[in-house]
Amino acid sequence: MLRPHPHRLLSTLAAGFALLATAWASPSRAAENAVVLPAPAVDLPAADAPQTAVFAGGCFWGVQGVYQHTNGVLNAVSGYAGGAKETANYPASGTGTTGHAESVRITFDPRVVSYGKLLQIYFSVVHDPTELNRQGPDTGTQYRSTIFAQSEAQKQVAERYIAQLTAAKVFRRPIATTIETGKPFYAAEDYHQDYLTLHPNQPYIYYNDLPKIEALKKLFAENYRDRPVLVRDAKATN
After folding, report:
1. How far apart are CA 123 and CA 220, in angstroms?
2. Distance between CA 134 and CA 127 in Å, rounded?
3. pLDDT tens-digit readout, 58-96
C-alpha cells in the first residue's frame, strides 16, 4: 500500500479542504502567476541525437507532468538523484537525509526543443527557483531546486542562465537553484510514474500541479503538446 510522505499527506489534505472551500475553482487561476522569463542568451550547439537533462524542482509528479506535455520531449522519468543507489527509493529519500532530490530525467530531441528552452520552462513554469529546500507545501532537501548537469557544456549553460536571470532581477529573492555534476539518476518506483496523468483529480495534483500544465499551455503554446508522452507507453514499445 502506498504511504505518502507526511509532508505530501498533509498538503494533500490541506489542498482538499481548499478545493472544497473554493468549490473546485479552475486551476488556471494559479497559472496566471507564472511568467515567461527571458530565454537563455547561451544555449547548447545543435545536435541530431537525443539528449538527456535531469532537473529537480519539488515533487517529481509535477515536474514530470510539465515535461511530458513539452513538445520534443521523448520521455520523462521520475526518480532520484544526488545520493547513493542504496537510498534511491521513496521511503529513504523522504527522510531528507540521503542527499537525493526528487528529480526527472528528460530525454529530448534537440532538433525540436533545445536544452535552453527546457531551462526556460524550468525557471518559468516548473517551480519557484527562489525557494530553498522546499516547494510549496513540501519541505526538505529532497525538494530542492537543482540542475543535475549531464555534461560540462550543460553546466556552463545553466550557470550562465542563472547569472543572466540574476542580473536581470526577474525575481524578488535570490535564486536558490544549485548545479550538481557527476550524480547518477535512479528511476523511481512504478507507482510514481505518470502520476499526474493517472490521478488528475487527486487533490495534491489538482491544486499544486495542474496549474503548471495550464501555465505551460498558456505561456509556451508553441512548445505545448496536448497528449503527454508517458513512461508506460515507452515501456510498451520496448
Report:
1. 13
2. 10
3. 999 999 999 999 999 999 999 999 999 999 999 999 999
How far apart CA 200 and CA 215 sit, in angstroms, is: 16
Closest to 81 (Cα-Cα) out of 207, 189, 229, 182: 182
Residue among 145, 205, 152, 202 at smallest CA distance from 178: 145
- For the stretch 124-166, pLDDT in tens is 999 999 999 999 999 999 999 999 999 999 999 999 999 999 9
CATH assignment, 6-237: 3.30.1060.10
The model's pTM is 0.88
Q: What is the pLDDT of residue 234?
A: 78
Going from N- to C-terminal start, the domains of the chain cover 6-237
> Which active-site residues does the annotation give?
59
